[in-house]
Amino acid sequence: MSFWEYLGNRHQQLLTDAFQHASAVFQCMVIATVLGVLIGVVSYRSGWGSSVAITSTATVLTIPSLAAIGLLIPLVGLGVAPTVITLTLYGLLPIVRNSIVGLRGVDPSLVDAAKGIGMSRITRLRKVELPLAWPPILTGIRVSTQMLMGIAAIAAYASGPGLGNEIFRGIASLGSANAINSVLAGTLGIVILALLFDAAYVLLGRLTIPRGIRV
Amino acid sequence: MSNDSPSGPRSPRNAPASDRDRPPGEHDVKGLAFHDEEEEPSPPPAGRPRRFTWRKLVVVPAALAVVLVITYVWITNVELDSIAENSLAGDTVQLRWWQHVRLTAISTFWVLIIAIPLGIALTRRGLSKAAPVVTAIANIGQATPAIGLLALLVIWLGIGPSTAITGMVIYAVLPVLSNTVAGLKAIEPTLVEASRGIGMSAMGTLRKVELPLAVPLILAGVRTALVLNVGTATLATFGGGGGLGDLITSGIQTQRMPVLVLGSVLTVVLALLVDWLASLVEVALTPRGLEVGQ
Q1: Tell me, what's the ipTM?
Q2: Could you confirm whether the keyword DNA-binding appears in this record (chain B) (predicted)?
Q3: Of residues B22 and B170, which shows the higher confidence score?
């Protein structure tokens, strides 16, 4: 069976897998972004706090994802739970680091001015600091998403959802005619999803980065 | 320092006779005492910050040792059935550990051999036009999942450690390459011009000016490659390459949690250990002049 015939025959399954892959990564990215920016906001003002935040998230990133999944299985079982936890944890690092860097990079005189015209701490954060720190945070989100695409593929080994299942099906049936089709479909599918997400982020950047600080 | 040098203008030996009765840094002009003001702040060499602080040297290995001891005590006391015992029998665990180390070391070696010269070549004048193409390929490569790449290689090259190493090298070359290119490109062009201007050859400029200045970024790339390779080496098991991934996958397949946890813990310990060693190397090899002040 040629690759195109394979795609034609299995398109239902492949589309389901692709959708689940994208949706798992997307949902985990939303959680990771909210948590990451929150950690950044809480810790960026104290040197100690932000170094703890960055060191601990960097340590998580050093751990191979298969080992992280392996450590989670005894605690939460197989399937969706370890996938979601792993993806969220790994997605955090670039976002936490970039929100701390971004928030620290905001010109203090602007924050002072905002304080001077009577903005509260929350309003300052919402109207001045976060919009100015948004471009680096968005970069962090892009980097995270690309990484999670690959990790989600590995999570399929622990019965997680997504295109990784195609790859592992191919590995399990090495030597059979469809092995290469299955692996190729899974791998190319993930590459395409990653590029689509990246394009979406570029668009999101055009729409959400304040006009005044666009480069 | 300047006090020991015999030619130093203010060393007591060649100072005017009347200065010899005064404390260093004080001069006698027509009976009045004058202080050298610029001598007062002590020069940096005495107070150079130490490169290796105790915290940097001790915390990580101590924490990892504690984790290993706890795991050892737990694994020797937990009830193992015959399947779990089989997976850990003899020196399987040591074998897998050393396979993992070997996979990581060999692939990192090849990554450096390929990526650093290629990065240097891409920043030379003749090839600099190819750089954007390589960056584009690198970006697509980064979107490729490691497991997919490895699976394709296994189908193409067959099962075995060399397939796993090939995959790891392909996967880790890109970050080191882009770090090398970025490091060399970030060098102030006037410095290169100046060194050419004083008569250094292109090779001499590269060796004495450009490479030392790019060292921090290149080393950061090497550290990234090491950490990536420790991680990708866990996937070698899917290509018959062995390594600690074997313990993890057999633990998942046979549903034996002790095997799974032991494999995972050892992988985590190895990854953090490698990252720690790489960070020490990074500190040791960075040229003194480029150190960022604390």
Answers
A1: 0.84
A2: no
A3: B170
